[in-house]
Amino acid sequence: MKIAIGLGKNENVLEAIEKFPIEIKVARTNKELLDYFHDSEIDGVIRGSLESNIIMDLKKEYPHIFRASILEIDNHKFMLAPVGIDECDTIRAKKVIVEECSRIVELAGYKPKIALLSGGRKQDKGRSPKIDQSIEECEQVVNDLKDEYNIKHDYILIEEAIKDHANIIIAPDGIIGNIIFRSLVLVAGIKSYGALTLKQPNLFIDTSRSQSVEGYVNSIRLLISIINSKKKLD
């Protein structure tokens, strides 16, 4: 197994690498990490502490990618998507997120349990056109996919989705998903494993440039776990 990770100004990346016996390449520029991303001998890459504009570089090649953060609270792991502020602005995009996140959850050996979030409770319909649209979009997605997936509309009640142990939580859009991520991880301090970038052929995990050593270790462990699962299926 070979993976690569980006090294910017935060050298916690180097300390994290030392905790693993496998070969981990270090990229010091966005271009170098993207070269590893396209290298057939590299099984997956992690942004590490490189600048965030590497995601924009990736989107030039794969314009439909989105990010799903892997979070853990009270020993329960779940995917939160989308978390990019320019992601998931259509019903079709929500369906793609359901499909792609479900594929990853199944790859990890679990059955997908999906919770859709919208802008209000069921009885809030009629309070504003924006709330109505948010609720109606989720209702349509659930109706269209209920025969394929274990999927539920939890409205604005994210606490119910977490309490119900949903392993995929889909925010109304990328802006709200990003705020949820920041509230849970950067304010409340729950464990984060990084964000998988999906809808492209190779494995890429997005991480914060200011992450702790433990945070980078978690992301490396996640990537190794996914690679091992893929190799078993192959």
Overview of the molecule:
The protein is α/β, with parallel strands linked by helices. Helices cover 42% and strands 20% of the residues. The protein contains 8 helices and 10 strands. It has helices at 12-17, 30-38, 53-61, 91-107, 129-145, 158-163, 174-187, 213-233, and strands spanning 2-6, 23-27, 44-46, 66-73, 76-81, 114-116, 151-153, 168-170, 191-198, 204-206. It has a 10-stranded mixed sheet, with helices on both faces. Strand 9 (191-198) and strand 10 (204-206) form a beta hairpin. It is globular. The two termini are 14 Å apart. The mean pLDDT is 93.
Concise description?
The protein has eight helices and ten strands. By secondary structure, it is an alpha/beta fold.
Notable traits:
single chain; 234 residues; alpha/beta; ten-stranded mixed beta sheet; 10 strands; 42% helix
Helix content: 40-55%
Low-pLDDT ranges: none
Q: Which H/E pattern describes the elements?
A: EHEHEHEEHEHEHEHEEH
Q: What form results from the Cα inertia axes?
A: globular
Q: Tell me about the largest β-sheet.
A: 10 strands, mixed
Number of strands: 10
Radius of gyration: 18 Å
